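Standup notes
- HV: blocked on the assembly model, inputs below
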Amino acid sequence: MITCQQAVRRFWSFLEEELDDETRGRLEEHLAFCRTCCGELEFARELRRMLAEAPAGAVPADVQRRLDAFVAGLGGSS
Amino acid sequence: MTVSPPADAPAEPTFAELVGPALPWLYGLARRLVGADHAEDLVQECLLRAYRARRDLRDTAAVAAWLRRILVNLSHDRARRDDRRVAEVPVEDVEGWSLYRTLIAEDPLPYSDSLHLDFLESFGVEDVWAVLDRLPAIYRIPLVLVHMEGYSAREVADIQDTPLGTVLSRLARGRKHFERELWHYAEETHLLTTPAGAPS
C-alpha cells in the first residue's frame, strides 16, 4: 500500500491521466480508505481548474494604444 | 515573362492587418508568462521578430500559431537570461508543504462547509495573476504553458531544449510554489477576512 506522501505526489499525473494502470490502481487503492487524501485530490482538481479557467483579461487601453502604434511604426505594408 | 496576379485577386494583408487581431491574446499570454511589468516589452519584441521574419510566414491563416511560437520562445530566452542566478528551490523546502493540509490546520474560514473550495473561490482573476507574478520564471513559465495554455510537458521540454524530467520536476515544484504563494498572498492581503459570498 502506498503512503499518503506517495499518493499526493501522483495526484496531478492522475488528473492529467498520465499514470500507468498499475500506479493508478495503487493510488485508487489508497484513496479507497484515506479520506484526507481524497479531500486533497479534490483540492488539486479544483486548483487545476482554477489555473485552466483563469481568463487572460482585457488589455489595458494605454497598452493597446502603444502596441497599435508600435505595429504601425513597423510599417503597414507586407 | 512576368505573370501578374488576376485583377480580382485579394490584396495581401498588411503586417498590421495580420497581427492586429492577435494583440489582445498575445498580450494576455505574455502577461501570464512574464508578469505585468514585462508583458508589453515581450509583445513588442515578438512583433519586431515577427515583422523581420514575415516573409517566412507562408500561410496567413497560421499567423496565430506563428506568433505564439515566437512569443513562447522569447519568454524562455528572457527567463534564461533573468534567472541565471536563481537557484532551484531545494526539494525539501517545497515538496513537504501542503496548502490543503495547512488550510485544515489553520481553519481560516471556520464557518465554511467546504473550506478548501471557498478558499480558492476567494481569489479573483487579478489575485491569481498577482500570485503567478510571485513565482520565479523558471517555475511560472512551465506552469502557465502546461496548465493554462494546454502544452504537454514534452512540448515544453522541446521548446526549452531541456530534459523532460527537468520540466516535470519544475512543474511539480512550480505547483507547490503556487500553492504556498496562494496562502501567503491570502494572509498578506487579508483575503480571508470575509468568507467568500458573505456580506463584508
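- HV (later): unblocked. Confidence is low (pLDDT under 50) at residues 195-200 of chain B. Chain B has eleven helices and no strands.
- Next: hand off to the docking folks.
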